[in-house]
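quick one, 245 residues, struct below
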Amino acid sequence: MTSQSRSPSGYSAWRMIADELRGEIVGGVAAPGSKLPSESDLAARFEVHRNTVRQAVASLAAEHLVVRRRGSGTFVAEHTVIMHRIGLRTRLTASLGPRGTAATGRILESAVEPNPPAEVAERLNLEGRSALRLEAVRSVDGLPVARGTAWFDNDLVPNLAANFGPEGSMTLALKSIGIDDYVRTSTTVGGRAATAAEAGDLELPSGSMVLVVRALSTLPDGSPLLYNVTRFSAERVELDLEHHV
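---
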């Protein structure tokens, strides 16, 4: 990056510096645990004032990509991109393996919708019945990775919202009301820029990308149970779609 390719000071400069450093971290050029160059060295590299560099590094710290250690400097945070496997039984804790206990979740909102969107009514075969809508965020090691909107036939899931524990597990909540198993029957994946609300919930900078997964899950007898729209941070999660013959 040269001074000709960016504004020399202020808002745009620090954002562009943060973008370049973020790319190096996410891309593996700057390895987890490695020390970032000093503010003076970064200021010289990008030909800006140290205050501009400080603002860029502060934004990376807010995203949990770097950590500051007093007296030692700033280091690339220990992090790994999560490989989330989507198959017949898709569970984030299963994708995490031994790190499954690091997954937590919180319900942001729950509401019974007498007139859900047409897409939801069709996928769940509601035929005029109300739908339960759950809004939730899932985190791993305290870092938000997914923002989900889950829709259910309200008649099938009495008191579901009240049965979510601190781990925020859909599977455990469903088991608590007597639904022991469900399977994924369809999945579509797309990508787009995060909305301002999604970026806030996922603690992402403006302009970040999310992977949007729309999925239908059914009971073992084929009855529709759950229509889920999940937005994953594209910087923190990769999706592995399993194929079944």
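The helical segments are 11-26, 39-46, 50-62, 92-96, 118-123, 170-176, 196-202.
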